[in-house]
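Narrative progress, year one. The postdoctoral researcher (J.K.) led the effort to move from monomer predictions toward full complexes, under supervision of the PI. The following entry was the first complex the group processed end to end, covering 875 residues in total.
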Amino acid sequence: MSASHQRLEMLGISKRFGSVQANYLVNLSVTAGEVVGLLGENGAGKSTLMNILYGLHRPDAGAIFLDGVQIDVSSPAVARVYGIGMVHQHFMLVQNHTVAENIALALSDAPAWNPVPFARAKIEEFGGRYGLKIDPAARISDLSAGEQQRVELLKALMGGAKWLVLDEPTSVLTPREADELFILLKRMTGEGHGIIFISHKLDEVLAITDRVVVLRHGRPAGECRTKDADQASLARLMIGRQIDKPSITNLTVPGDPVLEVSGLSSAGSRGPLTVNGASLTVRGGEIVGIAGISGNGQRELLETIAGSRPASAGTIRLCGTDITCYDVRARTAAGLAFVPEDRLHTGTVPSFSLVENAILRDAHRELFSRHGFLDNAKARERSERLISEYEVAAPDSDTPLRTLSGGNIQKFLLGRELDAAPKLLLAAHPTYGVDIAAAAVIHRVILERKSAGAAILLVSEDLDELLALSDRIGVMFRGELRVMFPREKVTRERIGLLMGGAPATSEELRC
Amino acid sequence: MLTSKWRLEALSHPSSVRVGTTMVLSILAGLSLGCLLFLVMGVSPVTAMTKIAAGSFGSWYGFKETLTKAVPLTLIGAGLAICFRARIWNIGAEGQLLFGAVAATWVGLGVGQHLPGWLGIAAMFGAGAFAGGIWAAVPAFMRVRWGVNEAVSSLLLNYVAAEFVQFLIYGPWKGKTQFGFPYSDDLPNALWLPTFYGSRLSWFPLVLAGAAVVLLTVISTKTRFGYDVRVVGESPEAAAYAGIPFGRTVFSIMFLSGTLAGIAGAIEIAGVHHHLTYPWSISSGYGFTAILTAFLARLNPGWTWFSAILFGGLLVGGDVIQTSLGLPFATVNIFNGLVLIAILAGEFMIGHRLVRIQHPGDSR
């Protein structure tokens, strides 16, 4: 058992995937009782490095050492033997089993017959030691994301993990749940665990870590003690230069209502309403932001407005016309554009070329097809235009879209949707997982459209983004669009509480 | 110390050279496996292979037989290639073919004799196409309306169609001039497709198959409908987002592929048998073999003629060794099966490759 080990090191790690150098000569070490932040943009090589540590990939060069002795981590099972545990961003839990059943599944020493009482006892033992309160009989599907994460942590701890890798652990949490996680992490370091905390959020890294290792394009960009760092210095290391925050100019006076939604409901795939009686108005030249933890109906709200999901009640009006009964194409023709949450499989077809993707929503239009035959020249023209106008880095228009980076795919997708100068733009997580430079372009483009008079409905989990861009902000919780605040009348903390289900005050409801 | 391991790696864009060589190599590998089988059976592999080659491609007669079988395989395979592109699994081409044959016979025996020959033939083919389309539309409708898995429903409808044919030939359609055999009456001579001398091959089905290949290639690469089909197949979510009508698209491609299978059925009646007979005689499994035809053509309708000729040759070659070497029918089936497995394995190896990975310092 590895409980007495004091130091885990990765030295000179390099890994190449095809033409992409995911890691190059990266060093990372963690000692018992320490939280190390692994900071970098999406695509900087953080996940690759951690997958190597957890035995999911083999490095091309470099090695892993435990207290100075080289170890060969050839699989996750071997990693666990060495006391290395991982909590993935997406939980690996059986949704309709209970907590105890899930834990029993993961425990190798659980009896084969009726393992649940054994798991239950273990849950109580470990839960008490780390202050992890969790009901062993609760069904996973009834738990919040934060609670599910605690189950994953318990699983790792019970498996004997001394070294814990947490991959973007706060991305699914409310601010309050994140605070609770931080308290728990402190307690675990007190028990002698070493933690690697992966994130691209600077404030969290500053709040929780003792030391920070920064990766950029797969290479080590710097390492420092957290108390010697600040947001600006870390950001510089992470992106290599200064990026200006989008400066909002609230000069545009909102015009006439463009989108009017009233009492909109939509049935989910699992029965209950995923959108329940939502009402909102977005005016021309206005950005309305919707905050909420993922899975509370924001995605479905946008899909219902865009027409790809049927409405079960309510009305949608676009520039005064009732479009509730319009199909997707009619809504697009009426001036509605939509950047969906899943840009790779919904917003685009990854195996198609850029030319083919450029007309995904317009292939049926006179502009791009004649008598049923596609006009390839027109499609190519649009693709080339999008590449130059939106600074899309692509070798040419015939490359399959999936070979582009997330940021470039997003710029291409956003550009395509804006190409016909829509009156209304629905955008879900426009900068999620996008590198900072591309995010800056995307923010600039959205603000340009706003000043050009378009109405924009923006869904994001990134509160900073919402607060920076929106004129008004609403919060969705369990399918209900509750309050709607003018931006200057609300704080980040208050939104965080409402996202977590805190009741709105009567004053807020009048807002 | 260096250790190494073999590992499979997925290839996203296999080159055309790689596709071609892998295909040829896997077909050769399948034939070699077949040689082993003949050895086990106590037959000289050289003799068996020579017979197969001579019987299917080595003589004019054999080649015409091969083409006779390749025609329905091409027609059906091209339609299925489009279906499978859209991830719509039409496994019911066999039944669609039989239904097309029934309708063609019905028209031929009913109104056909009162029409001039070419018009009667046109009516037969029209009826066959329509009936095949309808038989495919049933599972399409159930899929779109109630979400019933089309692979299962279309497969089961094969058996319904086969039983229906048997019912007809033993019952109401049993021919008065067939000496008690369970065949329908023969079509009037004017409705027999003229064949090349000494074979069962005629030019009309060849032209139809060629036209179908060209037409489907154009549809799938140049038209909006083909574009919609590919989007539906690649990502149903993207199709919903783009407003591509899923139901209408599924319905159209199923109907289209059923139509082609129905035409194949009409060809078997007008060109080969001239009456309705046992379901296994009318089709000899074309509806199923065409699934493999479509996959060997890599779901590219433009290449189905090529894989159809190959499979046609295999079927004919199998018949030849069965009769000339006195091998049991099961041997032929096993032989065909071995070649198929090799081709499918080749299909996998096109998309993957073995790489040797070395780890420095794995010693402990």
